[in-house]
């Protein structure tokens, strides 16, 4: 995990996103423990309250749960929850605006799909 202190994205959101990324990539499978607030705050030399804010966000989103006296763990089904939320966000942030712009330019949905397929071939 890496924190970008120059980014306009709040540090607690960066922490939450990176823990989610680790869940998605399998670094933190379901029911495994994630680093503690103290470990993360020491590692990145940031305020523990900032880390706690990110952890609290993930707890509220059903990604993490607390085992009293033990620490924070990845919830069952967390990966699917993250994927569903991020897919919706991807649609809202990219696809909807892409289709809106295509409509303004007179580009049909089929043409958009062809353009995407062509772009994917070039990568």
From TrEMBL:
Keywords in alphabetical order: DNA-binding, Transcription, Transcription regulation
InterPro entries linked: Tscrpt_reg_HTH_GntR, WH-like_DNA-bd_sf, WH_DNA-bd_sf
SMART domains noted in UniProt: HTH_GNTR
PROSITE patterns (UniProt xref): HTH_GNTR
GO molecular function: DNA binding; DNA-binding transcription factor activity
TM spans (from-to): none
Listed Pfam families: GntR
Residues covered by the HTH gntR-type domain: 9-77
Name of this chain's protein: GntR family transcriptional regulator
Lineage: Bacteria, Bacillati, Bacillota, Clostridia, Christensenellales
């Amino acid at each position: 995990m890496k924190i970008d202190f120059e980014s306009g994205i709040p540090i607690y959101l960066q922490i939450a996103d990176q823990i989610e990324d680790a869940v998605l990539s399998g670094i933190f499978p379901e029911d495994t423990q994630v680093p503690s607030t103290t470990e993360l705050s020491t590692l990145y030399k940031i305020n523990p309250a900032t880390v706690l804010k990110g952890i609290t966000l993930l707890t509220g989103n059903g990604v993490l749960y607390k085992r009293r006296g033990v620490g924070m763990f990845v919830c069952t089904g967390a990966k699917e929850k993250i994927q569903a939320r991020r897919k919706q966000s991807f649609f809202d942030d990219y696809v909807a605006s892409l289709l809106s712009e295509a409509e303004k330019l007179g580009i049909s949905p089929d043409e958009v799909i062809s353009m995407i397929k062509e772009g994917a071939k070039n990568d």
